[in-house]
Amino acid sequence: MSNYGQQTYPEITAQPEALQAALRQLERQQDWVRRYIGNQAFDEVVFIGSGSSYYQAIAMAATYRRWTRRSAAALPSSELLLFRDSHVAAGRQVLVVGVSRSGESSEVVLALDAVKDTPGYTVAGITCHEDSTMAKKADCLLSPLGKEQSTVMTKSFSSMTFMMQAAIAQAAGNDTIVEELKQVAELDEAVVPKADAFAKQLVANGAFNKYIYLGMGAYQGLAQEAMLKIKEMSYVWTESYGTLEFRHGPKAIVDPGTLVCLLVSERARSYELKVAEEMKGYGAFVVLLTARAGDDTAFADAVFEVGGEALSDEARGVLYMPAVQYLGLYTALKRDVDPDQPRNLTQVVII
User: Fold this and answer.
1) Rounded mean pLDDT of the chain?
2) What CATH number is given for 8-173 in this structure?
3) pLDDT in tens, 9-18
4) How is the chain split into domains, by residue range?
5) Which of 14, 105, 124, 305 could pair covalently with 36 via S-S, beta carbons 3.0-4.6 A apart?
6) 8-173 with 186-334: one CATH topology?
7) Residue 50: which of 83, 77, 74 has the closest Cα?
């Protein structure tokens, strides 16, 4: 029996506790919400991160725009550091929110340092480590159970994304969405073990030479993170696209042996499923992650239901993450690769 995955597996499995802890911690950090994410003095919020943290930033910015109806953007940390004027208009009051599991990623820290004393800029952050460099330089939300030993982000990604969404819901003054997120934390307890069994069987029975992840809206960032999990853990070639954008050229790579995994929204469900069905026609093995199965999903090779059909797409998003994380884990194990020790990678990237 291989000992591979001894760190990664329990960290994926511990997500429900991490989400609940994030909610409790947010209650203790209400002043952070008022001072930063809920402060009407800012013209724009710019979420920055590197790697998985950038993909979180994409989901956070999409959620912020949708729930508050205010301006937000997501940037790789290096873009704000080195090409700020290409992305942020002059003369605006800008809140920059650094996203970093460790709080030590040098690109995030350098980017915050570069703007913190610049007129019109205010910095804040979200991390799992209260004593980190970023937490000392910027007032940060803290995901207390997001800390991980493994290199690859799993529960930290889910808990930090979820915590920021809860902060955004409070900033928007939307009690309905606040309650939705409490439901998500409860649903996650059942979703995680179901996702484990689903991914394990899928990998055991499948033979895939490449993986494609598709998503729209806030799910575009989550699809990119799903892509990265497979690539980091198992070294399988993987790509990610906006769902409808995939039809405009990239679909040429689809053939038998291609797994196409679609993160299905309810908002664009009919359009997205048409794309997935088209990929099935080209020979792809189609996996749907969705709130609900139905007659319209019967064409798919595998369907994973997370529930929460009545929830907003943004709130439901983190419920899709355990399945794609376990998919990365079990793909690695099948290929006799240790997801705890990914090749060429370290937990903290330093320039």
Assistant:
1) 95
2) 3.40.50.10490
3) 999 999 999 9
4) 8-173, 186-334
5) 124
6) yes
7) 77
The answer to whether the Cα torsion of 202, 147, 314, 126 is positive or negative is negative
What single-letter DSSP state applies at residue 240?
E
> CB neighbours (10 Å) of residue 82?
13
Of 236, 224, 232, nearest to 161 by C-alpha is: 224
Amino acid at position 116, single letter: K
What CATH class is the domain 186-334?
A: alpha beta
Q: How far apart are CA 306 and CA 311, in angstroms?
A: 11
**Which residues touch 118 (CB under 8 Å, ≥6 apart)?**
none
Question: CB under 8 Å to 28, separation ≥6 — which residues?
Answer: none
Nearest alpha carbon to residue 52 among 222, 221, 225, 215? 225
**β strands within 3-158, DSSP E:** 44-49, 72-76, 94-99, 121-127, 139-142
Give me Rg for the CA atoms of the chain.
19
Which residues, other chains included, contact 98 with Cβ-Cβ below 8 Å and sequence gap of 6+?
48, 49, 77, 108, 109, 111, 112, 123, 124, 125, 126, 127, 134, 138, 140
* Apex 11 CA angle, 7 and 12, nearest 5: 120
Report pLDDT digits (tens) over 156-166.
999 999 999 99
Rounded Cα distance between 305 and 288, Å, is 8
- Residue 35 neighbours by CB distance under 10 Å: 15
Please, which residues have CB within 8 angstroms of residue 173's CB and are 6 or more apart in sequence? Answer: none
- Distance (Å, rounded) from C-alpha 324 to C-alpha 326? 6
Q: Could you identify the residue written with the tokens 């997935």?
A: 276
Instruction: Say yes or no to pLDDT of 118 above 50.
Output: yes
